[in-house]
Design brief:
Elements: E1 2-3, E2 13-17, E3 26-30, E4 41-50, H1 53-59, E5 76-83, E6 95-98, E7 129-133, E8 137-139, H2 146-149, H3 152-165, E9 174-178, H4 182-193, E10 197-202, H5 205-212, E11 224-228, H6 235-243, E12 246-251, H7 258-264, E13 265-273, H8 287-291, E14 295-298, H9 304-317, E15 323-329, H10 333-342, E16 348-352
Helix pairs in contact: 3-4, 6-7
Length: 354
């Protein structure tokens, strides 16, 4: 990776996209130290970040080609309070998670709120030191370690918002989760935790086997049914015939899988449109959406109030994220993005800042 290799031990080490987009243009550098902590803000030592597909698209210039550079990427992270004002609710050394949209505390989103999102347009978590609004933080549940906690701000909250905050999931509902990435696995856990039946599909049989035997998922094995869908197959009708129609589908594929999801969802059911892993532009026949009264809802992560409710539910259930076995650090963060781009990972990719 570009940059000064002698900076590895510096407390303000950061990774940024400097002058042009691309993984090859990621560079080690230093975040500016906090000379004077602004009122209403908190200084944080960030210890871990976790990757989302949005982060990869952002640094490659695919998410927002007009994004101003340089940019420190990543939306998910965790850290400890190093500076706070006397009246702050946050204590020194308290573990905290910065929320994805720093200004979105509750209610409906708007253009202003969604412009204050970590990892673009504003600097993200791929750095050792940062300053965040006091309101833009949530506490880490004690039972989670830092690796696990670093994955919750974006991926977990997206799945929670899709199924619980927006989807109004009910016990006994049938949920389809597509793939073995972070959002899909969180969705499977949240659905099963809520008493729903889950079908988890993937093109990769080995990944399904690994996931279904993971200690953080095996407790829900009686509620989650894995199903292998070979590449190139039209799985929508097949899984509907095999498992029945679905009340909720967590759609992370975008244009490449949306037509299949429309085949599998029940009349009056909900498709939560989250990702564009298989393409962003869709040629869609809207007739079944209209005639079967299918609800397609876009999900842009979620607000702080929703995240607080999610953390409370997770703590009650002692739910733990599913993390990929590979680990990375700031000095080889570019390799973490290449690994994500290869689509070989399972669950969340974590970067240790120490």
């Amino acid at each position: 990776m570009r940059g000064d290799s002698t900076l590895h031990d510096h407390p303000h080490l950061s990774v940024s996209v400097q002058d042009q987009f691309g993984i090859n243009n990621l560079s080690l550098g230093l975040s500016p130290p906090i000379a004077e902590l602004p009122q209403g803000h908190v200084g944080i030592k960030l210890t871990h970040s976790a990757l989302n597909y949005r982060d990869l698209m952002m640094i490659e210039g695919l998410y927002n080609p007009r994004q101003i550079l340089p940019l420190i990427p990543c939306s998910d992270g965790v850290g400890r309070v190093t500076q706070s004002h006397a009246e702050s609710q946050w204590q020194l050394e308290q573990r905290v998670i910065p929320i994805f949209s720093q200004s979105w505390l509750n209610g409906e989103p708007n253009r202003l709120l969604t412009k204050h999102t970590l990892g673009g347009p504003i600097n993200g978590t791929l750095r050792r030191s940062a300053c965040f609004s006091s309101e833009g933080l949530v506490p880490v549940p004690d039972y989670l370690n830092d690796d696990e906690a670093s994955t919750l701000g974006c991926a977990a909250l997206t799945a929670w918002s899709a199924l619980i905050e927006l989807g109004q999931l009910r016990t006994g509902d049938h949920v389809l989760c597509i793939g073995t990435g972070g959002v899909s696995l969180f969705a499977a856990q949240i659905a099963a935790m809520s008493g729903a039946r889950v079908t988890l599909i993937s093109r990769h049989e080995a990944k399904l086997d690994w996931v279904m035997n993971h200690p953080n998922l095996i407790r829900f094995k009686h509620l989650i049914v894995p199903f292998h869908t070979p590449e190139g197959t039209h799985w929508g009708r097949e899984i509907k015939q095999k498992f029945g129609e679905f009340d909720h589908i967590v759609e992370v594929g975008g244009a490449g899988t949306l037509q299949e999801s429309l085949q599998a969802v029940r009349a009056g059911g909900t498709i939560s449109l989250i990702g564009v892993l298989a393409g962003g532009g869709a040629s869609l026949n809207l007739t079944p959406v209209l005639m079967r009264q299918i609800k397609i809802q876009g999900v842009i992560v979620g607000h702080k109030a929703g995240m607080m409710r999610m953390l409370k539910a997770f703590e009650c259930q002692r739910l733990r994220p599913i993390l990929d076995e590979k680990r990375f650090n700031l000095a080889n963060a570019d390799q973490a993005f290449l690994y994500m781009k290869s689509a070989q990972h399972i669950g969340k990719i974590v970067i240790n800042h120490n």
